[in-house]
Design a protein that fits this description.
mainly alpha, binds fe (ii) ion
């Protein structure tokens, strides 16, 4: 079918890292650890699919803000990457013994904030910072830790491919800010407004990304399969914000380190 072959060609053209063709051998591991990994990858399928909605909506906002063709095209590419990630995660779930997660339908549409009280330019800037500098940078730190632990060759391939993409996604926000630097420098009121937004964004992201730890006796096989406990996410988030994201945002005239320290849900 032509749509399928078009998609295969597109997916191959977007691939950043080679796969060495390793296959998963479940018998090498404790079945309980494999079952836990299966849950991680089926959940991840849903999250990646949801990210496709987020980046598709972000692409519309970036276009509406009058961003460059390059910035708009890369945002569209990120949406495409997420759809490929969802499909790859579904493949991994099957390799780990799960029934194939259904795509589409793995997860409902995810919303993106519309920020109706600010300009279209600031709306796009806010959501670019939230989705890439904050969320994707945390995903990069999470996947890096997962790859550091993973010994299984099949799963290392499965982690490396999205990690290569998420690294671009995480950097995108800083590149986007750079392309709006002159515009921002000329508008101290927008920088002040973005800084106020950051206090809220850092608090929301911390709540979204921090999860309760799983209650199980962790084994060496969980490490070999690249497991990162949900209970580790809060610390991963805080380290990434404190040491990478907030200092990085300071370069654009945003008082991001103070915003991070004083993060709050209060308006
Ligand atoms: Fe992704
Ligand atoms: Fe991503």
């Amino acid at each position: 079918m032509q749509l399928a072959s078009e998609y295969r060609a597109l997916r191959a053209s977007l691939q950043r890292v080679e796969d060495d063709g390793a296959v998963f051998a479940a018998e090498a591991y404790d079945p309980a650890a494999v079952a836990r990994a299966r849950t991680v990858w089926t959940t991840r399928t849903q999250n990646e699919y949801r990210s496709t909605f987020v980046f598709s909506a972000l692409a519309s906002q970036v276009l509406a803000a009058g961003a460059s063709v390059e910035a708009s095209a890369v945002t569209l590419r990120m949406a495409q990457d997420e759809l490929v990630h969802a499909e790859r995660c579904a493949d991994v779930s099957v390799a780990l013994g799960a029934p194939r997660p259904v795509l589409p339908g793995a997860a409902g549409p995810a919303g993106i904030a519309t920020h109706t009280k600010v300009s279209r330019e600031e709306c796009a800037l806010r959501n670019v910072v939230y989705t890439t500098c904050i969320t994707e940078m945390t995903a990069v730190a999470y996947l890096t830790l997962s790859l550091e632990r993973a010994r299984d060759r099949y799963l290392r391939n499965a982690i490396r491919a999205p990690l290569a993409d998420e690294t671009l996604h995480g950097r995108f926000g800083f590149l986007y800010l750079e392309s709006w630097d002159a515009w921002l420098r000329a508008r101290p009121e927008v920088r002040a407004s973005l800084t106020r937004y950051l206090r809220f964004a850092f608090a929301v992201a911390e709540r979204e990304l921090s999860q309760a730890p799983k209650a199980f006796a962790r084994t060496a096989d969980d490490d070999a399969l690249g497991d990162v406990d949900p209970g580790e996410m809060g610390e991963i988030y805080r380290n990434t914000m404190e040491h990478a994201v907030a200092p990085g945002l300071e370069r654009f005239g945003l008082d991001a380190e103070a915003a991070y320290r004083t993060r709050t849900f209060a308006p």
